[in-house]
From TrEMBL:
It holds the Pfam family TonB_dep_Rec_b-barrel. NCBIfam families: TonB-Xanth-Caul (TIGR01782). SUPFAM superfamilies: Porins (SSF56935). Residues 39-516 form the TonB-dependent receptor-like beta-barrel domain. It comes from the Bacteria. It is found in: Cell outer membrane. This is TonB-dependent receptor. It comes from Pseudoalteromonas lipolytica. Keywords: Cell outer membrane, Membrane, Receptor.
Amino acid sequence: MSLNYQLNGLDLPDIGFNQADAFSDIDRVMLSKYGIYPYENEDEVKAFRLDFKYELENNWFSSIEFGARYSDREYSNNRSVFEYGNDGTFSATQPPLRLTDDMTTVVDWQGEFSYFPSYLAIDLDKALNAWFPNGIPQPVQTWGNAEGVVDLDGDGEPDTQGYTTNYSWTMLQSGSVYEEVVSAYLMLNIDTEIGKLPVTGNIGIRRVDTDQSATVLENVGSDPQLGAQYIVDDNGIVNDLYAPNILGIKYTDYLPSLNLNFKISDATQIRFAAAKVMARAPINRLAGDASASVNNDGEINGSSTNNPFLKPFYANQYDISYEQYFEDTDGALVVAAFYKNIDSFIDTIAIENFDFKGNGFNVPEYIVDPVSGEQIETTNGVYTTAVNNAKGGYIRGIELAYTQVFSFLPSPFEGLGINASYSYTESEVQSITDLGGDSVSQDLPGLSNNVFNGTLFYSYENFETRLNVRYRDDFVSEQVAVNEQVVNFDAETVIDFQTSYQFTDSFGMLLQVNNLTDEPTQSYFGTTSKTGTTQFFGRQFYLGFTYNH
């Protein structure tokens, strides 16, 4: 079979198959491999908080607040695996499954994708029951044929229980994260006048003590003096290469803040805020789960995109806004500006031609082709890891918001209104990616330069309706493929519609349509000429009724 595939930027590709009919022919398609690689997570948090407030009588401060919070969090991640067959060819020892009519359905592409060849949708339960008539095997946490597996029966060979693949990653990527945080704060609430200008707000400081750690298995080369132990997997396979350990850090942060509200008039006010802020990494990013695996070509790739030594995102931020409230009608105009000076943030870097063996990873010198029996020498590939990027940089921008209810219009139009906002943001924080083959710069994840949100709404007696439009230009974010990767996303405009009617005081109806135009989500790698994914999630319709008795 031959395939011609030509990218067309963000448009659908040109494709051609010399045997397109084969994709939906059960006499020419078989299942060659079944693999399952689950993540099982548990997250438990215990927290206690105590707050106090004391009223003051002076010309500057109305009250003082202070308090403390304690939290103890434990997160666990367990990996497991089951594989049968081969995804590169047909295996003689684990033969493929011949499909039948009762376990397949021919699916034809529709709309813009109609020129793609039809394919078979497989009833997984029926297929697995036919493939494994004695019961579907469940995934397990196992060493497999990993280096360090112990010879228990004394025959001179590691007791791998028949495994030929190294599954040590299921053991190395499993473990727990512990996070203990103690914080205390002191805040003065401001209520005073400067000249004849009323000023309210608060000033305070928060101290945060953090103790974070994660369980790891460190490769110590089976040396008992370095803590090597017998570590048993779910199958009873024993490995003595590793030493269990708990790694982590303790650190203390002081976070001052100031908020001021200047009341220029009953309809006008200016707000100012300054603070040092922190944002912790998601708890799973603190796991100590460095691992590596070998693909069918013998290339070793690995990652530790999680890291128990990661510190939070830190920034000093400043905000100022002018707010004008309309006196004759409901509505307001807000103009705001912000500036964030980022001290450090979490970044993911990729190291090419990484020496996995030299850095203590459990990787083989060669792999064996399951069909030919040929030994394929392994080669070093890419190692991806997470670090605290200390370069930092700024994020700055402006925001405009306008809300107006046109209550001055004659009936029945007095319920017409609009709510609109626009923001422009820019940043000097950038990272480098080479996912598309060439090294190109990427902005801070989640950041769009231009974002617009507008809502047109109308209300009359028992009837309400609204139309919302959300636009953001291109941005960078994570996408889950074989592994998580940071990619570019194209600009998108999403339109939602909602209407409701209250028939009686007790009976009402609501109709809602999300993504009215079926806007796709499109990703690419560095430049739009290197397409990533095009995903249509469809329109969502919701019809609901309420009844109160």
